[in-house]
């Protein structure tokens, strides 16, 4: 009984340490995302440990991107054009949050490098990017 309680505590503590490290590892992007959200004046909400920001000025920026998007993830921040877009893309964007937690500061450079390499080979740098394929696979498997 005592051993179970001790092991349970240790497991919870290790999980907390890993989650804390994941937040710190992704924090350069999360801090940048919060700053962008403040500048663009979006509506902030915290959902399952992730900051979600939506608003018309964010929609304007997402429309002007190279690949126009409904939503975009920056560390533990998800931008979307509207609350409806946040709701409909949550599963996909949460996969990107987990990717930021794994890759930390390397995520964006590696993502962009893979996209460029795919484009140079005449492939779809967005849909065939392994990070996007993982997000779409998870999204598809839950439908
Ligand atoms: Zn994606």
Automatic annotation (TrEMBL):
Q: What is the lineage of its organism?
A: Bacteria, Pseudomonadati, Planctomycetota, Planctomycetia, Pirellulales
Per UniProt, the keywords (alphabetical) are:
Membrane, Transmembrane, Transmembrane helix
Residue ranges crossing the lipid bilayer per the database entry: 20-40, 61-82, 102-120
State the protein's name: Signal peptide prediction
Keyword flag Membrane:
yes
């Amino acid at each position: 009984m005592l051993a179970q309680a001790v092991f349970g505590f240790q497991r919870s503590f290790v999980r907390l340490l890993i989650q804390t490290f994941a937040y710190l590892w992704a924090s350069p992007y999360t801090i940048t995302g919060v700053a962008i959200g403040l500048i663009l004046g979006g509506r902030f909400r915290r959902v399952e440990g992730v900051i979600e920001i939506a608003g018309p000025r964010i929609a304007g920026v997402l429309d002007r991107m190279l690949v126009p998007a409904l939503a975009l993830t920056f560390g533990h921040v998800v931008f979307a054009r509207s609350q409806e877009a946040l709701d409909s893309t949550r599963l996909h964007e949460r996969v990107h949050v987990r990717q930021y937690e794994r890759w930390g500061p390397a995520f964006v450079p590696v993502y962009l490098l893979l996209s460029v390499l795919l484009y140079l080979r005449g492939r779809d740098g967005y849909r065939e990017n392994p990070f996007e394929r993982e997000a779409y696979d998870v999204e598809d498997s839950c439908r």
